[in-house]
Specification:
Blueprint: E1 13-17, H1 22-32, E2 36-41, H2 62-65, E3 72-75, H3 81-93, E4 96-99, H4 105-108, H5 113-119, E5 124-129, H6 144-150, H7 174-194, E6 199-203, H8 204-211, H9 213-225, E7 256-260, E8 271-275, H10 281-287, H11 302-305, H12 309-320, H13 325-332, E9 339-341, H14 345-350, H15 352-356, E10 360-365, E11 369-374, H16 397-403, H17 408-416
Parallel strand pairs: 1-2, 1-4, 2-3, 4-5, 5-6
Antiparallel strand pairs: 7-8, 8-9, 10-11
Helix pairs in contact: 1-7, 6-8
The structure holds coenzyme A.
């Protein structure tokens, strides 16, 4: 079923006053699930991502199209009295307003939460900032990697002999947007009972930390016992009073590591992730052709293996040396070894199964032809989002204003005064 009147969020009107990634990722998913999402953008250039890292001249960048599909665009200067009036009219009719501007920007524009709540008590207001209201850094502007550093991800990622390292995964941006989405949907459910909307705030630092929960667990364990047995530093290295970087070690009770496969000398992704599952040790030994390890006291238990776990991984790499990553996983899966090939972005882009599931989709885009994007990772039994292109800057300005009751003359005057953007300037 496509995004029609029966889509899960059909009838929910969202004002998408967001930019870059955190806010747009949240509202894009609402649009996929059927909400009417109107992106309100600056007249001059719109969302900055339209222009960032362009691959085709004068064409909205992939950064923008991949985060703003299924939306409409109104480009209006909300710092003019006319623009503010338009915003206020939209707010009166909307269910949700989402913003992720720099701290204080909404207040400076005349759109404080108190004013918004007064205009429309049913409206739910979603807000992303770098830090929460109690933080001494709450006035900071924040991007992805800043949040990863402040949220505990960077200090615990990478190798022990290297600097703090950020992840390629958007833990600060899209992850915060997903947290906000959960908050907004929860507030929509609450409104069913109370009839009243509320403000939902998510800080990027908090959202990153929520994904680093097990590292806080490790901090507490370290303080109790002085070491972390699943980290490569145990038992031969040293621990300080803070959680170290553990390289590619598994974060749970199952040791694992990234292991070289055939061709690793030339292919930077000829690796698999290999997990030694305690309850699967016997089959693991059979899989890697080391049946003698099953009962050998130096190998038979996790405690016995840990002191020489890297020697064990080195032996497994010898077994992997004549197998491609796909061949290795093909064998290991028959022995129930939790493992996967390290996939490059090229392999992911070409993966037929990811295409078949709608996780990677090809989308039509005005002025571009088609582009590849990540579709919905959430699958419903009774709903399949239909992913469409992203709007041009101000593409729907005239239609939106006329729906709000503005006459053709008034709209023309807005254009002359540059209160709204002409999509042709795009
Ligand atoms: N018409 C007129 N003015 C508009 C407008 C519109 N349609 N849309 C936005 N503006 C104004 C804002 O009100 C703001 O005004 P100000 O001068 O009073 O601050 C100004 O444009 C710039 O806004 P913003 O995009 O927030 O500033 P920036 O480019 O300097 O900072 C961020 C960008 C991302 C660093 C900042 O927005 C931020 O820290 N956001 C919170 C955390 C976040 O979401 N980070 C990004 C994660 S992807």
């Amino acid at each position: 079923m496509a995004a029609t009147a029966t889509a899960p969020l059909a009838g929910i009107k969202v004002i998408d006053f967001t930019g870059v990634q955190a806010g747009p990722a949240c509202t894009q998913m609402m649009a996929w699930f059927g909400a009417d999402v109107l992106k309100v953008e600056r007249v001059t250039g719109g969302d900055v991502t339209r222009h960032q890292l362009r691959d085709i001249p004068n064409t909205d960048a992939l950064y923008f199209t991949m985060l703003n599909s299924n939306k409409r665009s109104l480009a209006i200067n909300t710092k003019t009295p006319e623009g503010l009036e338009v915003m206020e009219k939209l707010i009166r009719e909307a269910d949700v307003l989402v913003e992720n501007f720099a701290p204080g920007a909404m207040d400076r524009m005349g759109l404080s939460w108190e004013h918004i709540h007064e205009l429309n008590p049913r409206l739910i207001f979603g807000s992303v900032k770098g830090f929460n209201d109690e933080s001494p850094w709450k006035d900071l502007k924040v991007y992805e990697n800043v949040a990863q550093c402040a949220g505990g991800a960077a200090s615990t990622t990478g190798f022990w002999d290297g600097p703090p390292t950020v992840s390629a995964a958007a833990l600060g941006d899209s992850n915060t947007g997903m947290h906000l989405l959960i908050g907004l949907l929860t507030a929509l459910l609450a409104r069913e009972k109370t009839g009243v909307g509320q403000k939902v705030s998510v800080s990027m630092q908090d959202a990153v930390l929520n994904l680093c929960r097990v590292k806080l667990r490790d901090q507490e364990r370290l303080e109790k016992v002085g070491y972390l047995e699943e980290y490569p530093q145990y038992p031969n290295g040293t621990f300080t009073d803070t959680v170290p970087r553990g390289g590619n070690a598994g974060g749970g009770g199952q040791p694992g590591w990234v292991l070289k496969c055939k061709g690793w000398q030339d292919d930077p992704n000829a690796y698999i992730y290999f997990t030694i599952q305690e309850q699967n040790w016997e089959k693991t030994c059979q899989a890697i052709e080391k049946p003698e390890w099953v009962d050998d006291p130096a190998y038979a238990t996790a405690t016995a293996r840990q002191p020489h776990i890297f020697d064990i991984f080195a032996d497994i790499e010898k077994w992997l040396a004549d197998k491609t990553k796909y061949e290795a996983v093909g064998i290991l899966r028959t022995f129930d070894v939790p493992c996967a090939p390290v996939l490059s972005m090229k392999e992911i882009a070409e993966d037929p199964a990811l295409r078949a599931s709608g996780t990677v989709v090809e989308v039509q885009q005005q002025g571009r032809g088609t582009f590849l994007t990540v579709g919905s990772p959430i699958k419903f039994s009774d709903y399949t989002p239909a992913i469409t292109g992203a709007p041009l800057l101000g593409e729907h300005s005239t239609a939106v204003l006329s729906d709000l009751g503005y006459t053709a003359d008034q709209i023309a005057n807005f254009q002359v005064a540059h209160v709204i953007a002409d999509p042709a300037e795009h």
